[in-house]
Amino acid sequence: MKPGAPRGREAMVWLAAPFLVAAALLVGLPALLALGLAFTEYDALSAPRFVGVDHFLRLWDDPLFWTALGNSLLFAAMAVPLRLAVALGLALLLHRGGRLARSAVFLPTVVPDIAYALLWLWLLNPLYGPLALALKAVGVADTGWLLTPWGARGALVALTVFQLGEVFVVLLAARRELPEELYELCELEGGGALTVFSKVTLPLMAPTLALLAARDVVVSLQTTFVPALVITQGGPRYATTFLPLYIYQNGFEYLRLGYASAMTWVMFLVTAAMVAAQLWVLRGWRASKEA
Amino acid sequence: MVLFLAPLVVMLTGSLRPPGLPPPRGVELLPEGAGLAAYAATFELVPFGRALLNSVLLAAIMVPLSVVTASWAGLALAQTSGWRWRTLAGAVLLLVMVPATAVWLTRFAVFKVLGLTGTAVPLIAPALMGGSPLFVLLYAVAFRRLPQELFEAARLEGAGPLRLWRSIALPLVRPTTAAVALLAFGLSWSNFIDPLLYLSGEDALTAPLALHSLELLGSTQWPVLLAGAVVVTLPAVLAFLGAQRMFLGEERGSGWLGR
Lengths: 291, 259
Known about the structure:
Protein name (chain A): Sugar ABC transporter permease
InterPro entries (chain A): ABC_transporter_permease (IPR051393), MetI-like (IPR000515), MetI-like_sf (IPR035906)
Organism (chain A): Pyxidicoccus fallax
Radius of gyration of chain B: 22 Å
Keywords (chain A): Cell membrane, Membrane, Transmembrane, Transmembrane helix, Transport
Largest interface: A-B, 87 and 91 residues
Number of domains of chain B: 1
Low-confidence stretches of chain A: 1-6
Number of strands of chain A: 2
Subcellular location (chain A): Cell membrane
Mean pLDDT of chain B: 79
Oligomer: heterodimer
Distance between the termini of chain B: 25 Å
CATH superfamily of chain B: MetI-like
CATH superfamily of chain A: MetI-like
């Protein structure tokens, strides 16, 4: 704020009041409560009972928790790079017009989660699904993809790749903000498409990509919930039991709210650590560029 | 482009198949005897009409509310500069990063203690924080691009924060409003988890929940399920097509992108 700014400026702060109150009640308070509940035994019926760090010790010995954590990390490791790469490719392809094509790319993103999951459940149906029928028509007989752990994981990754509208739009905007003169210069110097991409486009868009990657990691930890619930129910053999699903099962199906809260906090810390690691890498990369 | 549209097209054609027939043996582009019979069955099996009405009502409350609170908070945030801006914008960004799943349980507990589970309040409440902290950031970034002299001049004439917001700030960021409104609509329309946790009973179904209960009926009649999916998807697609002009715009400087 500039010194001597007119007094009216301070009054603007009040406009943020509803947001701050709601954020405190809906995010701040629940997050703190989750921390508190994590140290208690609570089933939503009787009063919470303090149990210390028991839940965290139990988590350590819960093989399913480690499976769920591993699945979530694996999912992020597969889905995030793929989503970013596809979205970047499409943004570079479509940054010069083609509103129809852009709309087409965005359209799967607006399909409500549950309808989208149901749609894919049908698409991937091994007997009657269009994909199975199409593959059978060309002579491929093996359509039991949802029955193998890697097939199910791959299917869930594939269906999130189609919903990349938000990443796509942000990358489109980032590409359009790059100065055209730079590209004209490259053309004059006769740089090939690949050189231009690796020397100009990629370095200039790297900060945006890094932020999107951080956000996508967080998002990918949540988006697995509905598809895993509707399409694979966590199977086969727990291959798609992701953390949100396991938390949901513990909290709302088995009413182990304390235990689920402990898990929630571990998930939150894992997320924060992953985002921090990414930002740390980005900072190091930037410093090496500037040096 | 074709690849991205393919699943949706297949969904539509699949829903036109008459229900009750054995599944097709091969690939069929348009099913034989295509018609709307599956849609009729969908509305008979679950109270879809009621569910659609509920979802429309929720969206009608949540979208304007989200736009108002997000733009208010965004305007307040845009007034800061220097380290304050970086700190506060960073804090909001952190809030964006908090996974929704991390507060599911205890948010539910809070509403339970308040005796508000089973009402629409827990569903609408997020709109009070702008729908998503991301929308606040979008508005803050848009407002910061406006020349500050505009605000200073209006302030000298004695305009209060609300008048600044309504008659100066908001009219200048229409593309952002279109984008936020569309995204807020998507959030409220697609919301599956919250209604699943908070609502019960036939009268309180929302469109995604109705689709879920249709699925739970164990219907192996794919045309019926797909018809339900189309019904739930259609409003979202229409909203997108209505707003896409504003933010996937062609020319530089016009759309949300061409800044």
